[in-house]
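Reposting from the mailing list since nobody answered there.

I have sequence plus structure tokens for a pair of proteins and want to know whether others read the tokens the same way I do. The first protein:
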Amino acid sequence: MGEVATDDYEVVIIGAGICGLATALALHKKGIKSIVLERSEALRNITGAAIGIRQNGWRALDQLGVGDILRRTAINMQRKGELRSLKRKELIDTLYAALPPATVKFGCELESIKLNPNTKKPVLQFIDGSSMMPKVVIGCEGGKSIVANFLNVKPTKMFPLCGVRGLSNYPNGHTFNQEFARFRKDNNLVGRIPIDTNLVYWFCARPYIPIDERIKEDPEAIRHSTVALLSDYPEELKEMIEIADANSLSFTNLRYRAPWDLLTGTFCKGSVTVAGDAMHVMGPFLGQGGSAGLEDAVVLARNVSQMGLDRVEEAFNLYVRERRMRVVWLSLQTFFTGMLLAASSRVKKVIGNLRSSDRPRSSQEGNQKPTNGEIGISEEHHWGRNWNPPKWLASSGSAGRRRYPPSDCHTYTEGPNFRAPWLDATRNLDVSLMYNRKGETRCVRRKDLIDTLYAALPPATVKFGCELESIKLDPISTKPLLRFIDGTSIIPKVVIGCEGAKSIVANFLKLKPTKTFPFGEFRGLSNYPNGHSFDYVFTRFKKDNNLVGRIPINNNLVYWFYTQPYVPKGHERIWDDPESLRHSILSLLNDYPQEIKEMIKITEANSLSFARLRHRSPWDLLTGTFCNGSVTVAGDAMHVMGPFLGQGGSAGLEDAVVLARNMAHMGLDRVEEAFNMYVKERRMRVVRLSLQTYLTEIGEGGVSMDSEEVIIIGAGICGLATAVALHKNGIKTLVLERSENLRNDTGTAIGILQNGWRALDQLGVADALRRTAVPILRRGESRSLKRKDLLDILYAALPPATVKFGCELESIKLDPNTSKPVLQFIDGTSIIAKAVIGCDGGKSIVAEFLNLKPTKIYPLRSARGLSNYPNGHSFDYELCRFTNNNNLVGRIPIDDKLVYWFCPQPNVPGDERIWEDPELIRRSTLKSLSDYPEEIKEMIEIADANSLSFTHLRYRAPWDLLRGTFCNGRVTVAGDALHIMGPFLGQGGSAGLEDAVVIARNLARVGLDRVEEGFNLYAKERRMRVVQLSLQTYLTGMSAWGEGQEFDSWLEQLVGFSLAGDLSSRPSVKREAPYDSPRRSGKLSAEAGGGLSPWRRLELGAPRAWFGGGTD
């Protein structure tokens, strides 16, 4: 290929397959130039006949700008969501055509890669002897990647299967449905995907035998071998293979990279990384290989674009971190599905035929004959979700459907031998169900089961009120010593712990603690006096991450459960109140079918409950110690699992039978041996059930608290605005508010100055607020509005369930292992958050954690109220303030009738006793304003009693802000939690809005993986701005309190000077930027942050005069 100039190609991509071309295109879209080096002499658009692209792949193609082009010829399968088949050639050609000319260089076969010892840049050595030293290398050269070898990624492995692929042409058209159909018998799998009305792509996966090597290069031998293998399949399948185009026939071993290697492998080193099959080659069983490679391309380009080529190592680390668990799960699902096709697979021996794992296997099962026509198992179904589970998770069959018009909710119910298809979860409302298993599956009341078991025991077998405190071995007899909470103890010969998920016996055995699923579950029992009309099937309704399950018990009783993502502090407060539970559930199921809501409404109150879902992880079961001497565990104490397979109770019953059989066989004198046999017999069984349950939970789209990337404490103006700003930048948040509802009834009105409106414009809510906000007569944009309107509109701009109420923070500390903040709440629950922003006001717990000095109290307290003039007032629309001696009155009209006012006054000992009595507040205020104009006193007299409040005025000293710590690692503060100030400039709310925009912009710029850097940038940018505003406010407030003419005159001059200078003058938020940069300077203008418009001073016996030399 010759020596290639490295300066022209900073980014080199190895391989011009789907992922390589997509990566080059994604980088090109981000303005990053790259070159693709392909070993073949031409574009490899003749290998592989067709490809299925799933919904995630189409989303990636849309990001690349080629999705609509490919949809013109791609066939949409008959399924929910978007799954389309298309010719691989068309996909390759379209990606290639979207690249700039000469991006792809052919005939460049890579031989090796190493790092230059001096520059640490990668050196690429090619097969023809040439070399190059680019800045960045991305390996996209497939399963036998040389770049992956350089990264020391473990070699790919071969499935014990081989694959035959081909393309069949029906000149007169075929009659197949436009769907992905799969046919399986024994260990052979045939898949069929129509591409258009004439062409059909197919593949056949079957066990590999060494003789297959001889037919790899002979298309006719491939054809004859495949037809012979499928001799007892339907004629239409054999005909499809017989007419296949010889040039399209191929035979390959199926390779994969083990999921555990993906979990621990190194996928980047310096400026070298891998993507696509070079990273995560997987079998065709889920059809996710191509789609996952397209995802890689988009994620890789996004991270490189955000970091820049100068920080490409950091970008690659972010890319690998983002992709690792995604490809691990896809690979794990593919691995299980593929291995279960192989008859001699060791994995199959471990996992067993888990399609029958819902019951103990009978000795006759292995001899059962196929009952489904010519083929033992004939499957024609749509591939569901973003992955298709292994056969032991769900198989297919025919289903009857009941639709609930006009709702978008569908229910799939089963016949006697039905097994549910794995349904697509990408639509707005998806309903899935757990299959009715073959054999006997019945629903019974738990009470009936408990009562029946209890009645079958000899009298006095069960002793009540015996709460175990601890267990240990007696040092002399080595028998177990049980100590109870009441101080008594016993030394039995044998102990079996069946006390559930929080088992003390399991702790004694040193089993690892159980974990919680990220779900909470509501349960109940509904009684239909006249009978229900539901089929006797287990039906589940699913939307997003919420799941409702329904099981009829008899003609009148129906058991149901409802699982949803669990949010600490959102549920615990309603556990003990059945009606609160009911209302909470109904509010969450608003768009579900009416029959579901009716079922909840008629639920017996005594049956309603809520609980966290716990599990013991499969890998802990695989390695855990379940017995020690004459002590063992059973049931949930051993293998607590979620309800997703409905196996918890049945597995516990199995434990009982197996345990008793082994003890009877060995006798109590050999109980340790019996327990060892019991554990040996049960271990793999419960591992399999637990693994099924765990993977099913993952398939249900479970979300963890890690999805709540940023925790905001406080749902006031700044807290909600910060959440909106982060949401606008694509960052998910969770706002935790201590009150039981939105605090939109505290505070009556607020003035927003020009800088605040610019911030609201950035948040996208300003226009909605301007409709009701009243302009104040002053330069620039200043408007007054009800505080309730501001809070309601910010709240409405957030995604549902962003704000959780009743979450009162008690303390915050850093986790010693992860350095993440740990939030401890007043009811004992806690969260480990990725990032925390404290917007919890002047008494902020987050600010205390940051060691900010406590807020101080002005020598003033303030009365506030809202006055209603039924016939309208005559005041100008301006912020008008009057002062006399040490009393100040501010007045802001809200509309033609409503006027908001405040009155700061010097503190008087004993005032606290009037705070809770509106009439005492009114009388005290009128007394202090006895020599003010009548219009002022009248305004106080007619104030609505419910609006009257009396508070101390707090502030954080400007000098404390100048040197204080605004952030510590992943924790910062904003709004009043950072810079609480008095009302004298009207900048408190506007400054908090500025904080919200600035903090969101910096986090979006650096990304959540560099949240500490983002918070430091925010603190640096905001410090001088809030110091200046705080200093202005402080001086203005203290001037209203100053005693003595000399002090008052001096302070007036100082305040006037500061107001006329740079501190408050410059615009707080430029139109093109959402904040006021402290680096900008400018002359004071009344439209800026000063907020004094107009301040009128009352001298007794003198007319009103402008204060401060006429400046605003």
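The second protein, same order (residues first, tokens after):
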Amino acid sequence: MFQTIEYQADYINWDVLAMRDGSLLRDGLGIEDIRQTMEIKDKNRLARVTVLHDCLGCRTFEVPPSAAVRDVKRRIDAEAGLPPAQQRLWHRGRELSDDIKIVDLQKSQNQIFLELQSKGLKGGGRFGQTTPPLVDFLKDILRRYPEGGQILKELIQNAEDAGATEVRFLYDETQYGTETLWSKDMAQYQGPAFYAYNDAIFTPEDWHGIQEIARSRKKDDPLKVGRFGIGFNSVYHITDVPSIFSGDQIGMLDPHQTLFGPHESGQCWNLKEDSKEINELTDQFAPFIGVFGSTKETFKNGNFPGTFFRFPLRLQPSQLSSNVYDKQKVLELFESFRADADTVLLFLKSVQDVSLHVREADGTERLVFRVTASENKALKHERPNSIKILGTAINQYCKGVPSNSITCVTYHVNIVVEDESVKDAQKTSWLVCNCVGGRGMCTELDCLADELKFVPTIGIAMSLATNEEENGAVADFSGRAFCFLPLPPGEESKTGLPVHVSGFFGLTDNRRSIKWRELDQWRDPAALWNDLLVVNIVPKAYTTLILEAIKRMETEKNSDFPLSPERIYRLWPDENKIRVPWKPIVVPLFKDLLQHTVIYSVSNQWINVEQVHFSEMDERLEYTQSVLNYLQNSGKQIAKVPANIASAVHLTTSAAKAVKKVTPAVVRQVLRKSGHSGSAEEKLHLLEFVLSDGVYSELIGLELLPLQNGNFIPFSSSVSEQDVVYITSEEYPRSLFPGLEGRLLSDDLKPEVLAALKEAAKSRGRPCTQLQLLNPERFARLIKEVMNSVWPGRDVVVQWYPGLEEKKHPSVSWLKMVWKNLYIHFSDDLSVFDEMPLIPKTLLEENQTLVELVRFRNPSPIILEDESETQLPEYLADIIQKIGGVVLKKLDISVQHPLIKKYVHPPLPSAVLQIMEKMSLQKLCNQVASFPPTHKDALRAFLASLTDANEKEKRIIQELLIFKKIEKSSDESVPVFTGLKGSKVLHHTAKIPPGLRFSVPIIDSSDEATIRLANLLKIEQLKSTDCLKFVIEDIRSDFYSYDEIAQIMQWVLENLTFLKMRIQM
């Protein structure tokens, strides 16, 4: 007990102390003997000198007992910059001279408290700012520092800094005895408590550090992130009297300074040296037995191989805090820790096991929650070796060893979470990359590292998900910021990155968030440090992680957590989602990444960005896969990347070196160079794509133009008629042009393809392709081409076998469609279709096997003999056909047109004469001359119905040998026919001798038809007297024989009276 007494009080009542240790008096030892014994025992131990000063605070130094006061002053000067001449050290109310030995100040223990006074500005009186009372100081910490799961994280961090591998938290409901305590005031701290255990042992520095509440040990050692700094003091949210058991010592802290004497803020016991007092205060130390492997044997042996803290719950408000704790609040503390417990171990190097336990009042203990970090068997050495390399790099940096490169290590780690409320353990797997910047990479960063005692370390972790989880947890992943441990959940800890980022960041005072260079802390060194860390180290660490993920995807294809290109692509940040402080990583990260083979091609290869053509084609489109397959088979490297990768490429690629994409222009270029020998379906897919940008002039030479016959021909700029390819439409359907499939664009095309080809066919000055849209003129051209192909001759009437494939004849519906188009588009003029066999001689029926068609001719040889109208006289139909005409009984209903009457005439003489006009007059006359008398009579009678005639018609009628001569043939029953031309017409009232011959043809006009025609043609008609004049002239010219003259004269005499009357008329 004497070795733990602090000599700051003005005096010590040795009698009281002796009476509290009766065993010493029973042994007959006096006070002086005890003092001498203790001095011998401690002569080789370092003395701990604690110096108190209103401005400098509390400073503790370890010095040899032989050291003098001047040595302590030198230590104060070295640390606080206060010259020894300005220092005045006081002990127990008296000022010490420089020569006094420390050993002379020691009594029964090796710890001495001195009070430091320094001269004012002019050498007299006390001067300087003061620190608030300890309780007030801690209360301020608690106001700023969060309550909740972060308390547990701080304790884990302390364990990590100590090199511990295991941390256990325990809520203990046990009520311990209150009889043998240091004082009766300690009774209230013997009940329920919260414990924190780790398997590391306190060092002397730790024992010092935990007493220095305003100064974290990391100031001296950058490798210690938070050793008992402000973070540790957050335990005062829970307790008023935290205690520590580690190695051979137990310490208790009392910030209220009421339990261990005036101005005493704690007490410490050594298991061996204070064993007697420990054994007497059994209830006081009972809470340190029976937990975490600590037993009575532990106390007997004088060493506990680990560390645990005991935090008795604050059961009633105190001056320090009004926050009262009970079991429910401890479990809530556990629950708040559980929220992100699966990532607590992610970036820790030492701690691999954290568990939460509850011990009930009856002593039964249960596991509430546990999280462990481990490696796969195949990679069991990877993480330890990586951490060793990382440690070496950190040491090198701290020692100032120059290196302008970054040291990165990557390892796989499994995090397993066991929860009492969940049957099966939850396992997550991670790929973690930790990096240490080299000294020399950034001068400003190095300077800040020395000033702040920081190290430029960064860790990046990606979640590895099984294939089943790919679309779940990974898709919803939200990256957070860590400072070795996860920062408290909330908006400030979110990064907007698809990975977790840990770093040696400068944090705000309450350690809840990272400092950033905002207006109020633009020049803050820690904020500047964080900015530099983000710009210089994070991108390189991030790049390393992605490259390592790619490497492992290739080499660990059969691992438990296989990587995929999609998963790796999701590692790339989306610049639109990144929180503002992290945006500076974007450009350097992307630039660094794109120097490597980080693009996954459709041929399953990781390639460089310069090699690839990026596809932004819609996967839902039918042609996409065909286009990509074609390019790939043509030797192009194709990649389909998500939006975040495409954005990264665009962001970092210079204008001079444009990103190569899969575009219609690229495909057209490849097609010109390599052609295409694939299927028709693939060609159509390629055609659809190369048309999509509307640059139709670049189609020339591409063998992708689909014809109706199934062939593909090259696009051409030729305007030659034989090269034209016509585009059919609803107005001009393909079925109109049978046999011309090689001249027509395929009509089995998608609407969008057809629309594009129609655009390509439109003329902008000069057509850019051989495609042409059908119009009336082109329709007529093609119809004539069809007909000339099927009926190549010149016959007026042709044979049509509708739908007969052998002859390639069009169907009945075809002719109907033709007439429909003639009606619509050629209502004013049908002359372009002259000589085309378009008029059926009979009515059309779908099942007909043979139909005769009549060609359009002008004048038309077609006469329509419609039963409902005027009918042709007998023999006329035969006559018309013999002179080259065609007689129709009926006109099919499909043959409707405003100009049809120009080509299909009614059965009128004028129409027949029009037909006759087409023949040469000689041929016509010969043909008519060959007619039998019945036909001649019928024709004469038909022509006689004319009411008027033009000169040409009159000339034709005059030439026709259809008029009967007066004279008889040898066969008196067969009349002799002649033409009006060169003949005389006997008036129907005239009388002449019977059987009389004339030297000129005399036409008998005894029939009405002859009379009408003679009158129409104004042919002179001979009367009886006129005939006698011809006879007299013929008699004079000896035309008649003697007998004929005698007969003539006899007839004259007999008809003299009649003749006289005619002469008189």
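Reply #1 (J.P.):
I read it the same way you do. The two ends are 189 Å apart (CA to CA).
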